[in-house]
Structures are given as C-alpha cells and as structure tokens.
Amino acid sequence: MTKRHKDTSKNTPTTRRRFLKVAAAGAAATAVAAPAALAQSGPVNMRFQSTWPAKDIFHEYALDYAKKVNDMTGGDLKIEVLPAGAVVPAFQLLEAVSKGTLDGGHGVLAYHYGKSNALALWGSGPAYAMDANMLLAWHKYGGGKQLLEKLYKSIGANVVSFPYGPMPSQPLGWFKKPVQKADDLKGIKFRTVGISIDVFSGMGAAVNALPGGEIVSAMDRGLLDAAEFNNASSDRVLGFPDVSKVCMLQSFHQNAEQFEIMFNKTKYDALPEKMRAILDNAAEAAGQDMAWKAIDRYSKDYEEMQSKDKVKFYKTPDSVLQKQLEIYDEVVTKKSSDPLFKEIVDSQMAFAKRATQWEQDTITNRRMAYNHYFGPNAKKKT
C-alpha cells in the first residue's frame, strides 16, 4: 500500500509566516550585499579636460558642471576636470574623447571645425537672428539634437554631446585702432575660429585659428594684429588689455554660441540610466547657472577694464555688421553643397523664422528703460 505524502502546498498560517520570514531575511541580505558590492567596485571616475586655461572663467564653468554631477550622484560618479593641454591640445579634444583617451571634455563645437564644417553651425555665425538661448531651443525642441547625433555619426565620432550654456553676443575683437568700416579688416592678421574663419577671410583678413591660451602672446609678438576671443572676463584674465586698448563690441561672427559637454559614448552608454539622467540634467542646470554667473562677472570686468585698465570700447559700425551677414550668406551657399550641412541650415532657418518673429513682436526693447534710469538725461535716483 502506497503511503500518502502530506500536502505541503497548502497556504496555512504557519506556511505564510515561514515564507514572510524567509523573504524578509533575503531582503535584508540583499540590502547588506548592495553597499558591499558598491564599496568593492567604488565610484565611477571620469577624467575630463577642458579646452581652456585654468585661469579662464570658462574652465571654471567646466568645474561647476563637474561639481553639480559629483554632488548629485553623492560621489558615486566623480568627474575630474583638467585644463587645456593637460592631456591633449585644445583642438584635439573631440578625437581624444572619441577614442577614450579622455572620458569627456568641455569646449565649443566650433573647435571641431576641422572635422566637419557643419559643427560650427552650433554657434559660429549670426544664427539667423537667434541669440544663443534660442539656438539651444532649436537644438532641444527644433531637431538640432537629432541632427548633431547624425553629424557626429557621419564622421565616426564615438561621443555623446550636450550643448549648453548660452553665451552673450561676442565682441568683434581687439584692435590697434577703432574699426570704422569693413575695409579696415583687409590685410590684418586676425584670430578667430569656426565658420568665422571663412567670414573674416571673406572680408579680407589673414586668419589664424588659435586656442584661447595662445592668442595674447601671439599679439604681443606681432604674429597677430587683432583678435577676438569671447567676453570681458575671459579677455581680461587672458591679458588682452596688456596688448591692446581698443575693443570693438557687437558682432555677428559668433552671435549665438554655447558650450559643449562631451562624453565618450561607450563609457556613457555603460552607465546606469540614473547616472545618465543626472549627466543630462546637470548640463541644463549648469547652463542656467553659467548664464547668471556670466551676467555678474562679465559686467564687473567690463566696468573695471574701463576704469582700471583704461580700455576704450566702441560699437562695431552697422556697415561692418551688414557686411558680415552678406559674407556669411556667401559662405553658407558654398558649403551647402554638403547635404547634411544644408539640412542643418534649413532646420535652423525654419525654426528661427518662427521664433525670432515671436521675439521681435513680443519682447520689449529695454534701451528706453536703460536711458530712463541710467542715460545721460536720467534724473538722479536716491
């Protein structure tokens, strides 16, 4: 006679208590194991390089981004930021990050102009009347992000890119004497980057592309007659007032530029989704923080360059600005033989037409308010 086995599958109170007890013990063991595993593997370390000298406020912006990431990950991901030249020269950042020599970097897309002219469309030129913040709006919501991914893929760059940090319109540059007409640019030895190389060449200048840390010494040695870099704080700390006392404000050559945070794609893709989200959102947070810091710091240095460094600032004549637009259009027409270049230009123009009409119709021109409170005829306020 076969013995009947006791049915242990019944969900008795004793069985339920035993299951819950075992499950709780297992959960506790997992909770203990997770930190132990993390402690064994340690934090993820990333080595970054900026394209800026350590003393430049731009390098400070790179450090600001790294701190936001390091703080938000609670130390689980740590970004170390090195200055330009620590591992590779500034203009070799894209190649170094793509190959994995560096895990990431901080720069501007125009510095990769030698890899693809179209990369300079992110910030080098008039951006079809958009400012830098509007160009970033195009990038995020108007198709620019997808086009940049397509562009990097077309040149075999193994990177993930986050354009961020809208820059104010940049000066025409530093000169020996004020620029009064477009012909004054003919024959001068001038520094710029990106599509601006083609624009200033088209205006008759002999252009030399140099990274920021090399410009002032080149002017001091007479290798350059004039140069542009970016803003009052960067220009001052790099020493422009030591080699020139004339700065021309306003220009279309880099009217809407922004920074770029870049990661090696293989390293980035291997990160947990949560960390990738932090890297992405930290770029947007750092971009807004950078814009606020720029207003504070640039205005202080602009004031002090006039009062302490005895620099004279002049508005670039409208005739020069108009010539820049005309030459830029000629340059774009030539380069639009590249289908991807043309696709990016068409996308920018379509977005700009809509966005800039809204802006021009909606945003109040603040010149009247400035004149009311601070202009020569303003009443003194107590």
Structure description:
- The structure is a single chain.
- This protein is an alpha/beta fold and 382 residues long.
- It has a domain at 43-168 and 257-295: D-Maltodextrin-Binding Protein, domain 2 (3-Layer(aba) Sandwich).
- It is 49% helix and 13% strand.
- It contains 14 helices and 11 strands.
- The strands form 3 sheets. Strands 2-1-3-10-4 form a 5-stranded mixed β-sheet, with helices on both faces. It has a 3-stranded mixed β-sheet with strand order 5-9-11, with no helix packed on it.
- Strand 6 (189-191), helix 6 (196-202) and strand 7 form a beta-alpha-beta unit.
- The radius of gyration is 27 Å and the shape is globular.
- The model is unreliable at 1-40 (pLDDT under 50).
Provide the fold topology.
Elements (H helix, E strand, L loop, with lengths): L12 H29 L2 E7 L6 H16 L4 E6 L10 H7 L4 E4 L24 H10 L2 H11 L4 E8 L6 E3 L13 E3 L4 H7 L3 E3 L6 H6 L5 E2 L4 H7 L1 H4 L2 E4 L8 E7 H5 L3 H35 L4 E4 L2 H18 L3 H24 L4 H8 L8
Helix pairs in contact: 2-11, 6-12, 8-11
Keyphrases for this structure?
about 375 residues, alpha/beta, five-stranded mixed β-sheet, three-stranded mixed β-sheet, about 50% helix, globular, disordered N terminus
Describe the main β-sheet briefly: 5 strands, mixed
What is the average per-residue confidence, as pLDDT, rounded to a whole number? Answer: 90
Q: In sequence order, what are the helices and strands, one letter per element?
A: HEHEHEHHEEEHEHEHHEEHHEHHH
Question: Approximately how much helix is present in the residues?
Answer: 40-55%
Shape: globular
Strand order of the largest sheet: 2-1-3-10-4
Structure summary, number of beta strands: 11
- Under the CATH scheme, the architecture of the domain at 43-168 and 257-295 is 3-Layer(aba) Sandwich
Count of helical regions: 14
